[in-house]
Amino acid sequence: xxxxxxLRNVRTNIVQSIRAFTVKDLQAAAEALGHHFLxxxxxxxxxxxDILDLISxxxxxxxxxxxxxxxxxxxLTDVVHKSGPQTGFIVVLExxxxxxxxxxxxxxxxxDVFRDVADFWAERKVPFRCFYSFSxxxxxxxxxxxxxxxxxxTDKLVDVSPQALRMSSPFNAGYWLSAA
Length: 180
What we know:
By secondary structure, the protein is an alpha/beta fold. It has six helices and four strands. It comes from Tepidimonas fonticaldi.
């Protein structure tokens, strides 16, 4: 990806699979464009409440967010919009679970929230790009392996660099001040 025109081939208000991009590239693109970079690693989530809790914590959203999808939408739209002019957003939802407790319908409901958020920002002419990936289902550990410290192959989904885990948030003014 060239940094002169990062994401030039990606519509400005879209929710799409991360496929051709790395988290590091998306973070660099956000920095080059002066956009907020919001990253959530959902690999440890098992159900909808886990998803909401992880997104809330990793995006540093206000405490009332973690209750439901409507509150998530409100935090990513009205709350941010009222805080002042926004330059744009690059959002990553990595390892959305594909488990029976977070089935296809639940995944679509989550992505629909982000599609609605993209529409909200499109109406205000603010770029909002959301990239996502799905996690592989993880089998529970057999009882005889629970005491073992050796990880199973499915325990290590992806090695994400510490730099990729840094994020900016419209709710975290300290990040912006320290980055300047």
